[in-house]
Amino acid sequence: MAQQLGVFIPYVGGVEYATVLLPPLEGLCRVGETCVRDKAVESLCKIGSQMREPDLIESFIPLLKKLADKEWTAQSSSCGLFHIAYPNATEPLREELRTLYNQLCHNETPLVRKAAAKNLGKFAETVEQPYLMNYIMPMFKHLTQDGQTSIKSILMQVWECKFSFRKRSDLQDQDSVRLLAVKNCAVLGKLLVQQVCLAEILPVIISLSQDDSWQVRYTVADQLCELCETVGPDATRTEMVPAYVRLLRDNETDVRRAAAGKVTKFFQILSPELPVQHILPCVKDQTVEQLLPIFLTLLKDESTQIRVNIISKIDQVNQVIGIDLLSQSLLSVIDELSEAKHWRVRVALINFIPLLASQLGVSFYNDKIGALCMQWLTDEVHQVRVAAANNLVLLAVKFGPEWALEHIISQVLDMVNDRRYQYRINILRTLSLLAPVVGLEITTSTIFPVILAASTDRVPNVRFNVAKVLPSLASIVDQSVVEERIRPCLNKLNQDEDVDVRFFANKALQAIYQ
Question: How far apart are alpha carbons 300 and 336 in whole angstroms?
């Protein structure tokens, strides 16, 4: 009913009869349900904006004054009508309306003051410029400090064990009064000249950004960009940036989240140097605080696919969190992940090792993960062994041939006689991949003799894998080595009793001498 009465003017005979709609809406403005009162006020505003000036003066303004003199529900509703009544009122009535609104701002009931704070901006937009400083600004300042005295008295009552639910509710309402005052800062700032805005509005914004109520601070964070536009670029750089940094470091998660959500727009308002210097560290700190625990939890998730996905995206996480902090956290779970039942998790972890080692250096590999990388070469799953070999090659490229000879090749050679032929095959492949990285000298003196010796292995699969890797070595060693050692070896394998060995030996000879 409250909603539909707002469009009833055509059904009662037009604007000249609009006054007949006021009495039922007056009653609806006094009911207990807030949603009904709000719709009644909305309908009164629609009707009032169409009424003739004499009807406004004779019927609408008296209705407003009547509501403002009743119980708190009616007083709350009256606050939403002033911006409709004021522009068409005579000067004596305007003065009376300004005084009346001031009384509502000082009303003893928090919900009335809340309504006054909510509608102050709309009322201020209709008030003449000279009265902004004399009437509106004192009301605004009072509302921004709303609840401070009451807080003291409530704390005294806590001490006396008289704290009641009603008092807690009142305190929340007082917080919401200041919360609404935040939104008025932007509106009032646009109505004032810049110098007055900086003197009157800016201190209020800074104060509210440090309010005891987290909801007030949240509203400041949420309205931050609008507030910056109100005070201008200079004040934003000198005053609003420090306030924003405090909000980004607030002890309440919701406040930090609201502040972080304004980063992009805030950067657009300012020159790039200032945000990068002051704000990005805060954003990164909050990102690490929120993201890292989630990341580590997902690394231990029971779902294999989730763990694989997380590890596969670890380079992107590294760009945000930073390798130092990430590696410290990962070390606690690397051992656990290295023994994950599903091979895909182990492969994903192996693929991350080169990034981790390259960022943290040689000592990190030698002390923390070197033994683990070697252990993966003899994993029971072929794909893991392949990934482990590729991993060692990337590490050798990063740290150089001499390091590779001491810390990789020497340990790989210790595995060449493993009793399981699948592992011996993987060692051959690993050595062949390392050969181009370590160069001619190390390949000729260390790698090549081991591979050549494997050509007499008792298992045909090992022998034909020797035939498969020899062409790659032929491109590294001297031509004399090819003719004196590789070619005779392949000719011998080409006469092997196993058909597969002969096939790959013949294929290798064709590859070398084509």
Answer: 9
Q: Are 202 and 231 in contact (CB under 8 A)?
A: yes
d(CA 157, CA 163): 6
Amino acid code (one letter) for 217? R
CB atoms within 10 A of CB 1: 12
What is the number of other CB atoms lying within 10 angstroms of the CB of residue 422? 14
Cα separation, 127 vs 132, in Å, equals 7
| CA 38/CA 50 separation, integer angstroms | 19
Q: Choose the weakest-confidence range: 112-126, 232-246, 374-388, 433-447.
A: 232-246
Q: How many CB atoms lie within 10 A of CB 322?
A: 13
The Cβ of residue 381 has, within 10 Å, a number of other Cβ atoms equal to 14
Largest CA distance in the chain: 119
Using one digit for the tens of pLDDT, what is the confidence trace for 2-52?
A: 999 999 999 999 999 999 999 999 999 999 899 999 999 999 999 999 999
And the tokens for 171?
């305190």
3-state secondary structure 3-67: CHHHHCHHHHCCHHHHHHHHHHHHHHCCCCCHHHHHHHHHHHHHHHCCCCHHHHHHHHHHHHHHH
Q: Is the torsion defined by CA of 180, 181, 186, 191 positive or negative? A: positive
